[in-house]
Amino acid sequence: MKFRVANVKCDGCAANIRDGLANVEGVSQVSVDVASGEVEVQGDTLAQDVLAARLAALGYPQVSR
Prior knowledge:
alpha+beta; Alpha-Beta Plaits; 3-stranded antiparallel β-sheet; 2 helices
């Protein structure tokens, strides 16, 4: 599942996103492209609304593609 998010400016932001999504149920892997602001989440039974809400709570709200 892919998201494009705002406010990703550095590797520290990417680490915050990875750490913040790591304990969401079903998430097995998170990759972040700092240049594009794309976040890819892999795992089982992922809920898009839950992940988007978590990203927003972390300070990285989803933006239109």
